[in-house]
Amino acid sequence: MTDRTETLLPNWLRRCAENRPDHLAVSCGSVRLSFAELDFQASRLARQLASIGVQEGSRVALLAANGLEFVACVHALTSLGAILVPLNIRLSREELRWQLSDIQAAFLLSDQRYAEVAAALHMALPGIQPGLLLSEAGEVRLQDAASLDVPLRTLIDLTATQAIIYTSGTTGQPKGVIITYGMQWWNALGSALNLGHRPDDCWLACMPLFHIGGLSILMRSVIYTISISLHERFDAVAVNRAIQEDNVSIISVVAVMLQRMLSALDASQNEQGYPATLRCVLLGGGPAPRPLLEDCARRGIPVVQTYGLTESCSQAVTLAPADALRKLGSAGRPLLPVQIRIMQDGRIAAANEAGVIYLKGPSITPGYANRPEATAKVMHEDWLSTGDMGYLDEDGYLYVLDRRTDLIISGGENVYPAEVESVLLAHPAVEEAGVCGREDSQWGQIPIAFVRPRHGCKLHVEELQVHAAQHLARYKQPRAIYLVEELPRNSSGKLLRRELPHLLKQLTLAQQGKS
Amino acid sequence: MTDRTETLLPNWLRRCAENRPDHLAVSCGSVRLSFAELDFQASRLARQLASIGVQEGSRVALLAANGLEFVACVHALTSLGAILVPLNIRLSREELRWQLSDIQAAFLLSDQRYAEVAAALHMALPGIQPGLLLSEAGEVRLQDAASLDVPLRTLIDLTATQAIIYTSGTTGQPKGVIITYGMQWWNALGSALNLGHRPDDCWLACMPLFHIGGLSILMRSVIYTISISLHERFDAVAVNRAIQEDNVSIISVVAVMLQRMLSALDASQNEQGYPATLRCVLLGGGPAPRPLLEDCARRGIPVVQTYGLTESCSQAVTLAPADALRKLGSAGRPLLPVQIRIMQDGRIAAANEAGVIYLKGPSITPGYANRPEATAKVMHEDWLSTGDMGYLDEDGYLYVLDRRTDLIISGGENVYPAEVESVLLAHPAVEEAGVCGREDSQWGQIPIAFVRPRHGCKLHVEELQVHAAQHLARYKQPRAIYLVEELPRNSSGKLLRRELPHLLKQLTLAQQGKS
């Protein structure tokens, strides 16, 4: 009996090109690339990237909107064994600069739209090699690049790192989550076993590819050999049109998007709704409002709710449409490769007992890049502490009570109060700051802030908003800032963020009392 | 970053019982068991088996026809971490006895139909603990057994051995192929990625469960959470009825079966043929006759040809219906986890150059039980030499030229000439023996033998046939034995089995000359 490591698989995109060369790989705007064409583009781009020095293990940051540049680049990096560090285009320049230097990126690639931001970042970090990705009529190339005839990888090692994706976590300190090829593989397989897999599926990607929810669609496409309908940005009318005309069978969305799609459907007075070809609406990014779920049930839209995080390579737990009514409010059951347990007071909680959600399995991250302490803090004997609270009912269905205690989910983007607070606290006139979410009909939640000015300092709310805008991505900036005399804290002085909404009520009442 | 072995998955059947408790797991005759019921039966049987001493690592031989006893037993052994050794019910008692002692089986379980054979084997091998599996009205139990409340395994270790299945190979010496859970898992996933996976699939199993082709269907059922329509034996009319009435979507067959199904369809004057619910006819067990493929194409039957062997956990290479005409005669492309190469003169062959087919990947066996030399002979740096000849065309499609040089495939069963020859040579009056296949309209091929009597001995063909019947399974026994004065051999004395058919022609001509 031989001893083996079972971790090598044939290069996914290459295999698609061999098995279904003429099958549609990706449509984006008016461009349609077959697998053979995409493989050709990715291989050529890989050789161009090699000519500027990208090689095995290189950390290559990518600042780009959804587009063919992004898709070709992801696969090109796989062919070179380089590591993708996708950057959130919504971040402020300061946040981007911090991430680039934190991850010690050797390269910063951008598309044309973000060329200016990339140039500014390059000014600040001259040690990072820049590169501009161009896309014209379905041809992706690296500007001014030669081509180096390096051998491209025909095998994928499942233990190798595919990407490092930043997430902030409870501490407000962003950390790079290591995403291995194995995580992508096991997640894709777990998802296929759950949702079914049809060789003629077409997955619509309108979520950002720099988040795990979008990036994992790219990986599934080449693992399943199926088509992607890629949208440069979310436009409800365009998405509805694609569903109705392009045989889209699966779409990943967050609640805000789905709501807008339904509104657009109503506005278009389309009586028929979605065709039967749409077999799965994968709804992630936080709890879904019940009226939305009921509306979808009425319209016969097959919504599959999911719970997942970057650390679990997107979906980890899903609720099948058949269970939607029977288990209303539940996030469902774990995908096959995923084990789940609830921990309370250092022991495994009983059924229906709340505690912290732990996940384990080959689709869960091995940890954070360059952060052994942060990794040790969340990994306990291969179990990942998500920080989220929840319970399992007697049938093993997960109910998520609270995302990471005080996580704010705004339009599907995670906003970590501690991160926003640390920016506010950096302002010289701020003594204390507390951030929480406020319900919002459009975004689900929006961040708001409570600030206690430093004694003797004069603090204008507008000035503080300008300060926040300089340091934070737009979706993280507090939509309202309230000046208060005291923040709710427990006896040991810890900020009680859950009490902040009450503070808002008091302020409103006080306001009403005044008027 | 933590170091991990990514090999633990939740117990597959248990998970099915949790996720889809009421979904049909298996129908067999008039009995229908849901996943919750099957899990209950398997768990109870596991505790009964534990009471007679079955435990982790126990090698448990099973002599049973297709039935609920077989299904429950397979899953019960998984719950105990014991190893299944399924016995071919068509083997002679001598062959069975040899296998049992070769594998050092600790237990021999049988169903009622094979109780007598099992009792005789127990007489010969008193050290093996017997056990009789009974099935009444969907209840499976171990006769006269108590129940031991042992903990049942909630996790499956993919590196653990699930089964050991005997195959003869070119040498005529049967060897036990190690089948791990990982092989089953990767094979099931590779198959799902290739054929698609639908949660409402129903897979019809009419192939013997003691072969990898049948056993792997049982595993896929619990990996995919889909139903099985289990047939105790192949009956073309019953299989056709199941396809027409029971929503069967996938069926695994060999060419002989498919031919009979089509004949039965014609005889029943069913104009409609098979319903659209039948989405895949997986055709394995040797090359398919072209007229059969053309007939299926005319009828719109979606035939997926496959090439595989026990060592590759069934399917390794398949040809999609879309490629059936474009690549006529090809076995197709490897499943995703499988790598393939053709070796010739110690180097990788060029496109269209013939050589020995090698396979590699996590669905390929780590080797043969207790046979380090035999393992070393076929495993070369994790590549398995199949012994089969073939070539890859310029698109990477496999064409199998010859199954293991001289393998005879009779009704889907492999007959190894060397094994039959060694039995014939054991007869005192036989000096030389050569066995080959003859084309047969019903079985595809049947074995025939050429024998040179020992000098001065009188040899009756009938006597030799009785001798063969005593030592060989029926399907291996030569249907005709010809006495000859010389066998074709090369200069170094090696038997040229490929020349044997010419000998038959000469004999026939000589016969015609005489008459």
UniProtKB/TrEMBL annotation, chains A, B:
Domain (AMP-binding enzyme C-terminal) spans 419-494
| Keyword Zinc found | no
A Pfam family annotated for this UniProt entry: AMP-binding_C
Q: Which GO terms describe its molecular function?
A: ATP binding; o-succinylbenzoate-CoA ligase activity
E.C. code: 6.2.1.26
* Pathway, per record: Quinol/quinone metabolism; 1,4-dihydroxy-2-naphthoate biosynthesis; 1,4-dihydroxy-2-naphthoate from chorismate: step 5/7; Quinol/quinone metabolism; menaquinone biosynthesis
**What keyword terms does UniProt attach to this protein?**
ATP-binding, Ligase, Menaquinone biosynthesis, Nucleotide-binding
In the UniProt record, does the keyword Nucleotide-binding occur?
yes
So which domain of life are we looking at?
Bacteria
Purpose of the protein: Converts 2-succinylbenzoate (OSB) to 2-succinylbenzoyl-CoA (OSB-CoA).
What the entry lists under HAMAP family is as follows: MenE
Q: What's the name of the protein?
A: 2-succinylbenzoate--CoA ligase
Which species? Ktedonosporobacter rubrisoli
**Source species taxonomy:** Bacteria, Bacillati, Chloroflexota, Ktedonobacteria, Ktedonobacterales
Encoding gene, per UniProt annotation: menE
